[in-house]
Amino acid sequence: MEAARRNDRRRVRALIEAGAKGTAKQLMDAARAAETNVVAALIESGAKGTRSQLETAARMRELAVVTALIQSGAKGTRPQTLEAASRNEPAVVDALARSGVDLDAVLFEAALHGEAEAIPVLIECGADPNAPDRNGSVPLYAAAALRGRRRVKVDAIRRLREAGADPDDSGNGFEPILHSVAKSVGWGYAPSPVEHIGVLLEAGADPDARDHNGTTALHAVVSAYVHDRAEERDPAPYAAAIAALLAGGASPNARDSFGRTPLECATGNPRRADPAVLAALGKSAADRLRAPYRATRRR
Known about the structure:
It is a single chain. The chain has helices at about 1-5, 10-15, 25-30, 35-45, 50-60, 65-70, 80-85, 90-100, 105-110, 120-125, 140-145, 155-160, 175-185, 195-200, 215-225, 235-245, 260-265, 275-280, 285-290. The N and C termini lie far apart (about 85 Å). The chain has 19 helices and no strands. Helix 13 packs antiparallel against helix 14 and helix 15 runs antiparallel to helix 16 (about 235-245). The longest helix is centred in the last third of the chain and has 13 residues, at about 235-245. Helices cover about 55% and strands about 0% of the residues. It has 3 domains: about 1-50 and about 65-70, no CATH class; about 75-175, Alpha Horseshoe (Serine Threonine Protein Phosphatase 5, Tetratricopeptide repeat); about 175-299, Ankyrin repeat-containing domain (Serine Threonine Protein Phosphatase 5, Tetratricopeptide repeat, Alpha Horseshoe). By secondary structure, the chain is mainly alpha-helical.
């Protein structure tokens, strides 16, 4: 190390050839002191940084140390990268990405947990807002329809949409994002689903987009309520979701693959229908009791 400080390359080479090896601590100290010759010599001698050292350096915002540790072979992690992105440190994010961190996977985690501040930084560093995860789901789907650490992820949804995320494509090939959120009303999987429905519609989601069975988001809400087997169902979130969809332009007369409108789905089982849900669809309880609908499949 002393030889490297004196820029005595011949001496450094002799020490390395003799088997001298630097340590990770020496590597960090040299990087902090901006001694590039020392850093290069230590890396050449086989000094390797550790993941914990890299995590410490990233948290301390020591970009030179992060770079030196990565050059020595230390690998970054997704939590480190997400933390750096949340602190608005694109240079550190770039360095961690060069160590092998998948920025698309980090973006998915940021969307899932509502880390809205990290999203623009990750996208600036090269993450794709429409890249699917290993299950085929895209970040916007994770933000809107999956449960993460935060209850409300409206800001994350907006940031992804501003970055060019498709407001309809969930990536799974089965149902649009809005449909996934709508059918989860009352499940607890998508906290504050009504807020998410509203922001998706504001972002340009198609209120009448259909899933692989031909049903719309409005059908999904009604079906979720009719099939909710809880002893004491709360109709309020279902009615609010229906109102949000109708306000966003959803057609109350859209028919599914069985030829049923959302209202017909709601009245297909009079014992399961609720006046509040029917009122949201524009039908009174008296009408329901007079003429309950019997679903029949079109031939």
